């Protein structure tokens, strides 16, 4: 096990490892911000304890993000509530975090100790305006709630691949089965209302004076302000009864991994048809014949064309569950509910090269074999990003930047039992090494919604210089970076 020879020192989670005096200072600042915000908004919107407080701190997808103890939780019902909270956070120099759907796998990016948590569970409205052909979404909505609210009009928001995912996805990019046809989810944003660190509220669009902020927010995750309203271009996808897509789940035995990875490399390299979409989830837990790999394939049409999916369909499979689906059906097909498990993601990105995919999978299996006692599952998840995803943008360039080639995001996903004590530093160090051994193919961006919190995702963006310039302009004192956990590099 080569990677164990160079162990990296103890892994820490952002500012969680505060020393006692730092923690005391943070607690004092947070208490001041909380009390002042409660003075403005009242006790129903600012809670220091109680059932709603407890439920919020537990309502995270990953076990590792549960159990933080914010000094208070603010439950805004309007942008002005967020402005009030942010003004006091800024004035008190308090730490803070923002939570929308709570599905971030990045440890610590959506919760806080000794700080203020802003949770959007009371801002969940979704509406469709036929005159502008846009869908307006409050930050507490999810993919499923938004889809259910508007499908009767024959339209959909473009989001992700699991109904429970929240609006945080839109700020990272947003990969969906409809991406090849409709683009990144963040590239279907028309307007964003954003509360800056000082509490100022601005509306950013592709063409107004905040166009640099508009671009930065799309890929900039939680670094550029708190979004209080998303206006999205509607996709005309039909109602829940319009079964315009065909496809579904195909399960392969573990013994098919090499054939599957070769087919995946060819698919990633050659795909030009925007009606086709796929995700390949390879089980890296072991290589026995009982291991199953899961792939979802979809095509906007009445069948899976052999010209696109033929190689996959010729690989012996354990089961195939294909059918006709509406966009609505597909939104609710993959379950992403909160389980008891701890989760850890790590990102890479590969061009369609057989050896790269096979080598990456072998390293993931090798890693998993070594840490089998600590893990209950390990996946190697491949999401193709054909060039059509960029061409479909309605919002202009995002901050990630088109690399000019078909590629796939690769997510190394570790699943732990619900006991943080089983995540020893040696495993964290080895996981970082696994990611270092699987760098992105030259020129490719990492995907921020699938990264490890230590990864330099922004530096991999084509539009990194513009991103840094926007950060310096809209947060000149570096308040966000100093006071909330999130991506590095600004
Ligand atoms: C089961 C599962 C399936 C997934 N499937 C997909 C997929 O198909 N496609 C895809 O692209 N990604 C997918 N992801 C990754 C997903 O995009 C990220 O987890 C996403 O950030 C989750 O958003 P959220 O609102 O649920 O989570 P949160 O944890 O609440 O938010 C995520 C981040 O955004 C910040 N944030 C949230 N709201 C705001 C706001 N209003 N203003 C400023 N910052 C804010 C938070 O502080 C946090 O850092 C999946 C994740 C999981 C766990």
TrEMBL record:
Residues 1-17 form the signal peptide. Keywords: FAD, Flavoprotein, Oxidoreductase, Signal. Transmembrane segments: none annotated. GO terms for molecular function: FAD binding; oxidoreductase activity. InterPro entries: FAD-bd_PCMH, FAD-bd_PCMH-like_sf, FAD-bd_PCMH_sub2, FAD-linked_Oxidoreductase, Oxid_FAD_bind_N. Residues 66-237 form the FAD-binding PCMH-type domain. SUPFAM superfamilies: FAD-binding/transporter-associated domain-like (SSF56176). Belongs to the oxygen-dependent FAD-linked oxidoreductase family. This is FAD-binding domain-containing protein. It comes from Roridomyces roridus. The lineage of its organism: Eukaryota, Fungi, Dikarya, Basidiomycota, Agaricomycotina.
């Amino acid at each position: 096990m080569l990677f164990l020879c160079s162990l990296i020192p103890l892994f820490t989670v952002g500012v969680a490892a505060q020393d006692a005096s730092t923690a005391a200072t943070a607690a004092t600042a947070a208490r001041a911000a909380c009390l002042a915000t409660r003075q403005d908004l009242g006790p129903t919107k600012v809670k220091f304890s109680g059932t709603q407080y407890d439920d919020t701190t537990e309502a995270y997808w990953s076990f590792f993000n549960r159990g933080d103890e914010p000094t208070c939780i603010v439950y805004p019902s309007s942008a002005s509530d967020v402005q009030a909270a942010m003004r006091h956070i800024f004035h008190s120099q308090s730490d803070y975090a923002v939570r929308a759907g709570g599905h971030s796998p990045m440890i610590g990016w959506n919760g806080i100790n000794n700080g203020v948590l802003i949770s959007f569970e009371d801002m969940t409205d979704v509406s469709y305006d036929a005159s502008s052909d846009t869908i307006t979404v409050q930050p507490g909505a999810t993919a499923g709630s938004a889809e259910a609210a508007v499908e009767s009009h024959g339209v959909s928001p473009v989001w992700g691949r699991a109904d429970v995912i929240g609006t945080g996805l839109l700020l990272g990019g947003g990969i969906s089965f409809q991406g090849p046809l409709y683009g990144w989810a963040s590239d279907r944003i028309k307007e964003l209302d954003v509360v800056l660190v000082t509490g100022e509220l601005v509306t950013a669009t592709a063409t107004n004076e905040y166009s640099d902020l508009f671009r930065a927010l799309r890929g900039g995750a939680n670094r550029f302000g708190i979004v209080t309203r998303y206006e999205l271009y509607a996709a005309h996808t039909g109602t829940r009864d319009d079964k315009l897509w065909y496809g579904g789940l195909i399960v392969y035995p573990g013994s098919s991994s090499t054939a599957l990875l070769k087919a995946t490399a060819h698919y990633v390299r050659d795909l030009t048809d925007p009606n086709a979409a796929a995700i390949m989830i390879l089980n890296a837990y072991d290589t026995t014949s009982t291991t199953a790999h899961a792939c979802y394939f979809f095509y906007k049409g009445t069948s899976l064309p052999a010209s696109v999916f033929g190689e996959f369909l010729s690989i012996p499979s354990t089961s195939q569950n294909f059918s006709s689906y509406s966009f609505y059906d597909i939104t609710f097909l993959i379950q992403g509910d909160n389980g008891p498990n701890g989760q850890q993601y790590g990102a890479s990105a590969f061009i369609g090269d057989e050896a790269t995919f096979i080598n990456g999978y072998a390293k993931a299996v090798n890693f998993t074999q070594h840490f089998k006692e600590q893990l209950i599952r390990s996946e190697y998840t491949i999401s193709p990003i054909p060039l059509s995803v960029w061409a479909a943008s309605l919002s202009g360039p995002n901050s990630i930047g088109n690399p000019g080639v078909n590629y796939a995001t690769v997510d190394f996903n570790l699943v732990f039992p619900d006991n943080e004590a089983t995540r020893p530093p040696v495993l964290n160090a080895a996981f970082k090494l696994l990611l270092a051994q699987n760098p992105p193919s030259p020129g490719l961006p990492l995907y921020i919604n699938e990264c490890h919190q230590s990864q330099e995702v922004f530096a991999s963006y084509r539009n990194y210089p513009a991103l840094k310039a926007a950060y310096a302009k809209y947060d000149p004192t570096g308040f966000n970076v100093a006071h909330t956990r999130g991506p590095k590099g600004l």
